[in-house]
């Protein structure tokens, strides 16, 4: 008789999450940074990894306070804070996905609820499922703005009484950034209810000048976690380094549930090496922002609805048959993403060549 693995009932029939990984010339589907490491950075990485390799018989530093301090200093510079965020208020894991799952493990669980606003990043329900947390959603505002208002957030909190609220700024897949007032209102309301607010800022470095980070109000709220990643602006998606800033008791709670030595010595060495090259790595951000704005203008010029983006991707529509557009682009070597509300598509901003290939392909498929 065939063996049936005793999979948890709630996981039966679920498929592993993931966007298609297809080998085509223009990969514009998972919001990666299109620029590979430079030869100078690769040499520096090799040296750093080589040094770490000499101690690989030992477990890595479990607390990596040096790395946390450096990331705290980096965030202070990015968000224009008066002082570095102390190491004890920082935490690092294998991508912000792991950060989030650790946060859900610490603060979610059976009998607890997490609230997000749709359209949202597709992994949110999976962190909840994996940690046996109930996942509920409310809708963001209507297209093409997809604005989230204080009223929507407060009504959602009132309706669902969540322990965790996930807000994303800029939001994936819409690109929409949040105001500081909204973050403050949500954090204050949740504090009164004994709940936490997680602001996912995976794409924060791509925001327009003058758009604030939730880090600006980190000191005002005992229940606020801000999550970031090296996968996007730092162009290190392959290294799997995500991190968060939060008041110390929240970081300490997450430390309780992390697996020991979860962040390998190699990942730590790569993160340090990347911080040594911060200026070079972030050098692409200004270019990508400019390309994003040009791409948005191009799409608007063609008569599409375009969600205002503070990120490195653009949600645009609407198409009667978005699947057909997606596939016709793919045939021309351009891989984008079929995600978001019906009729919309999301394109990640690529190199100048990627973006040109996307424009040309779209014009061929769908002449204006
Ligand atoms: N948050 C958002 C909103 C994302 O879009 C992503 C990646 N697509 C992540 C978190 C996870 O990023 P990583 O685990 O690579 O840091």
From TrEMBL:
<dbReference type="InterPro" id="IPR015424">
    <property type="entry name" value="PyrdxlP-dep_Trfase"/>
</dbReference>
<comment type="similarity">
    <text>Belongs to the class-II pyridoxal-phosphate-dependent aminotransferase family. Histidinol-phosphate aminotransferase subfamily.</text>
</comment>
<feature type="domain" description="Aminotransferase class I/classII large">
    <location>
        <begin position="28"/>
        <end position="360"/>
    </location>
</feature>
<keyword id="KW-0032">Aminotransferase</keyword>
<feature type="modified residue" description="N6-(pyridoxal phosphate)lysine">
    <location>
        <position position="232"/>
    </location>
</feature>
<dbReference type="InterPro" id="IPR004839">
    <property type="entry name" value="Aminotransferase_I/II_large"/>
</dbReference>
<comment type="pathway">
    <text>Amino-acid biosynthesis; L-histidine biosynthesis; L-histidine from 5-phospho-alpha-D-ribose 1-diphosphate: step 7/9.</text>
</comment>
<keyword id="KW-0663">Pyridoxal phosphate</keyword>
<dbReference type="InterPro" id="IPR015422">
    <property type="entry name" value="PyrdxlP-dep_Trfase_small"/>
</dbReference>
<comment type="subunit">
    <text>Homodimer.</text>
</comment>
<protein>
    <recommendedName>
        <fullName>Histidinol-phosphate aminotransferase</fullName>
        <ecNumber>2.6.1.9</ecNumber>
    </recommendedName>
</protein>
<keyword id="KW-0368">Histidine biosynthesis</keyword>
<keyword id="KW-0028">Amino-acid biosynthesis</keyword>
<dbReference type="GO" id="GO:0030170">
    <property type="term" value="F:pyridoxal phosphate binding"/>
</dbReference>
<keyword id="KW-0808">Transferase</keyword>
<dbReference type="InterPro" id="IPR015421">
    <property type="entry name" value="PyrdxlP-dep_Trfase_major"/>
</dbReference>
<dbReference type="Pfam" id="PF00155">
    <property type="entry name" value="Aminotran_1_2"/>
</dbReference>
<dbReference type="InterPro" id="IPR001917">
    <property type="entry name" value="Aminotrans_II_pyridoxalP_BS"/>
</dbReference>
<dbReference type="InterPro" id="IPR005861">
    <property type="entry name" value="HisP_aminotrans"/>
</dbReference>
<dbReference type="GO" id="GO:0000105">
    <property type="term" value="P:L-histidine biosynthetic process"/>
</dbReference>
<dbReference type="GO" id="GO:0004400">
    <property type="term" value="F:histidinol-phosphate transaminase activity"/>
</dbReference>
């Amino acid at each position: 008789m065939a063996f049936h693995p005793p999979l948890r009932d709630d996981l039966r029939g679920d498929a592993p999450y993931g966007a298609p990984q297809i080998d085509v010339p223009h990969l514009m589907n998972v919001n990666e940074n299109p620029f590979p490491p430079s030869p100078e950075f690769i040499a520096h990485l090799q040296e750093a990894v080589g040094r770490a390799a000499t101690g690989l018989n030992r477990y890595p530093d479990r607390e990596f306070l040096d790395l946390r301090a450096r990331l705290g200093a980096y965030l202070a510079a990015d968000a224009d804070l008066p002082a570095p965020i102390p190491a004890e208020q920082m935490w690092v894991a294998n991508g912000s996905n792991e950060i989030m799952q650790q946060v859900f493990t610490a603060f979610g669980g059976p009998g607890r609820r997490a609230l997000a606003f749709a359209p949202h990043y597709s992994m949110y329900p999976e962190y909840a499922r994996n940690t046996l947390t109930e996942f509920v959603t409310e809708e963001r505002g209507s297209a093409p703005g997809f604005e989230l208002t204080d009223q929507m957030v407060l009504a959602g909190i009132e309706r669902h009484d969540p322990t965790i609220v996930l807000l994303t700024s800029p939001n994936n897949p819409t690109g929409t950034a949040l105001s500081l007032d909204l973050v403050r209102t949500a954090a204050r309301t949740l504090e009164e209810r004994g709940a936490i607010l997680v602001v996912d800022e995976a794409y924060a470095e791509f925001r327009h000048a003058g758009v604030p980070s939730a880090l600006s109000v980190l000191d005002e709220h005992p229940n606020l976690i801000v999550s970031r990643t090296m996968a996007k602006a730092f162009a290190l998606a392959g290294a799997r380094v995500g991190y968060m800033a939060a008041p110390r008791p929240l970081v300490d709670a997450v430390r309780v549930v992390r697996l020991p030595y979860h962040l390998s010595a190699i990942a730590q060495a790569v993160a340090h090496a990347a911080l040594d090259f911060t200026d070079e790595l972030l050098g692409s951000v200004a270019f990508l922002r400019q390309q994003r704005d040009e791409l948005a203008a191009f799409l608007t010029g063609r008569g599409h609805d375009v969600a205002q983006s503070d990120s490195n991707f653009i949600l645009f529509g609407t198409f009667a048959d978005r699947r057909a557009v997606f596939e016709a682009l793919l045939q021309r070597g351009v891989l984008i993403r079929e995600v978001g509300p019906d009729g919309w598509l999301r394109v990640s901003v690529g190199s100048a060549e990627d973006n040109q290939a996307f424009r040309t392909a779209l014009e061929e498929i769908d002449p204006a």
